[in-house]
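step 3/5: co-fold with 2-acetamido-2-deoxy-beta-D-glucopyranose
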Amino acid sequence: MKFSTFGAALLPFIASTAGAVQLDPNDEASIKAAARSYAYGLMELYKNNATGTAEQDIGVWPQPHYWWEGGAAWGGMIEYSMFSGDSSHVKALQQALTANYGPSNDFILSYRKGQTGNDDQLFWALAVMSALEYQFPDADSAPADYLEVAVNAFNNVMGRWDTTTCGGGLKWQIYPENAYGYNYKNSISNGCAFALGARLARYTGNSTYSDWSEKIYDWTKSVGLITDIYEVFDGVDDKTNCAAVADKTQWTYNNAMFLHGSAFMYDVTNGASIWKERVSGFLSHAELLFFSAETKDNIMYEWACETGESGRTCNLDQQSFKAYLSRFMAQTAAVAPFTKDSINKYLTASAVGAAKSCSGGDNKATCGSKWYTGSWDGTSGVGQQLSALEVTKALLSLKQNIVPVKQGASEPKPTTTVTPKPSSTPAAKPTSAATSKPAESSKPAEVPSSSKAAPVNSATVPSTKEVVFTSAVVVSSTKSTAAAAVSTQKPAGSSAGVASSCLSRTTVTVTISKPSGVNTTCTPSTTLTVYVPPVTSAPVVPSGATTSAPVVPPVLTTLAPAAPSANVSVPANGSVPSSTAPAEFQGAASSIMVMGGSTLGAIAVAMVAGLL
Ligand SMILES: *[C@@H]1O[C@H](CO)[C@@H](O)[C@H](O)[C@H]1NC(C)=O
Ligand SMILES: *[C@@H]1O[C@H](CO)[C@@H](O)[C@H](O)[C@H]1NC(C)=O
Ligand SMILES: *[C@@H]1O[C@H](CO)[C@@H](O)[C@H](O)[C@H]1NC(C)=O
Ligand SMILES: *[C@@H]1O[C@H](CO)[C@@H](O)[C@H](O)[C@H]1NC(C)=O
Ligand SMILES: *[C@@H]1O[C@H](CO)[C@@H](O)[C@H](O)[C@H]1NC(C)=O
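step 4/5: write tokens
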């Protein structure tokens, strides 16, 4: 199937609220109101719970979104529902999840083969993990409970641990016929599995999962995807036995997986110093790379594609990545409390920035991508709504001290519908300690880890009234809302899933190393890989590669549309190209060293060629 309009993902957006979103980050009610607005804006884009929707379209965003983004978004919506007490989407979410369990209750669906890589499957599993940890209500007629599904998915994925090359690792793709990426072992697939294992270990107390997580972490480090300064690169090529890192792009979501997985391991190991060091390392690196204090006021941004510095724009998948860094920073703060002050500072600034960006469209509440601009950037879509939602509900969870539960925690109890009043919740005060950036090579400072994860309790005694839904994980307050009646009807039928094809690509890698001696608090070396279709116009390769003059990006620095042209794409997203995708992923074909002065962003340009 062709998607010539791939770049025009300006999906219809119908106002559910009017007026720009106001956010007072010190006011819990204000945070909830903003999150509610974003959630409604997001769900307006979801068409596939309408009566009559084909079974296999349920839970999936309209084309050209890939299957994985459903799982990704439902994870965020589940958490939002539980943290806010807004029950209006519960039925739609339950329906979306269960419709994708598959015959073995592990998120393997035969008709979704072309879009199912390990990471795609795992994003859905992580949504179910959140349902467990935040006690999201089970669907009435679920074919399996959440734990069963999470465990099945994890075990299914780990059954593909591949020791035939590189000493282990998970490939990006599951099926050999999905050749593009079948030779690629990447951080997102391994990072999702690492994090899910750590969370299952904490939830169940079963060390099988944490043993896997140790193993996955060690392997990822061993092939250079995690560096000594906690960079997380994108992937390695098993055709070369992972001799070198094939793609050194750093994405927020790769960091997010290893950050929060390490935080859960820190909890599982009762505060082992090695995991504490890793948590600190990933967090420090995220702060340096994804929140530029100098120019962006600690507001999160997608370094690799958002500012134009790198010479490329974010694709449809990448528009949503800030959602996952937001979500998983908040979870990190919950289970590794020594990070909380710092994380609160960054999420607060980001949520405020996001609110300013959610001022577009007819309703003046449509969210854009670039939170640091102080206004709407003209883009809109699932990724934009989801990212704003997640950073805001992440902030809400910090305010409420929400901690994921473990197995056996008491079930949520119905409470009365009395207006929820946050009992305490003082405004969080970012500490000044968080502002000092550790030198990259230095060990993270030892911080006393006083509070382990607080026990979670649903408190409040039930009685009477119409209450059905309550957020059980809220420590400082409980709340409830009458459940909205939502049709549970599951339409039958069939329709084709999304399919697309990819070009084979050659690669140009440009590395800009900062001269030593120059301020190196930022990334000492940044490498950017851009995939260029081989047939058409030659990529613009910076000539005079060793001069010190910064290379000027010829194009692509203007505001991106909702989704960038399909002409420029990077195989570093969480999705899977179609089964018809031809070429295997080659990794970086050539590297050009460019000594840059103060230019941080690497610059490379891919010329485009049409087609998907
Ligand atoms: C679909 O989901 C939306 C948002 O949760 C909800 O408002 C709507 O009622 C649902 N529609 C059906 C038919 O379930
Ligand atoms: C721990 O998890 C593994 C993998 O799911 C399972 O095979 C094993 O039975 C579990 N152990 C216990 C004690 O539940
Ligand atoms: C880097 O630059 C910042 C701001 O110019 C300065 O405060 C800091 O001390 C410098 N760090 C190093 C290591 O030179
Ligand atoms: C994800 O990356 C693949 C591989 O480059 C690409 O074909 C696909 O278009 C990307 N997905 C999206 C939604 O951009
Ligand atoms: C790719 O680029 C060509 C040339 O700039 C353009 O004509 C075409 O519409 C683009 N294709 C897509 C899918 O954006």
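step 5/5: annotate
The longest strand covers residues 506-513.
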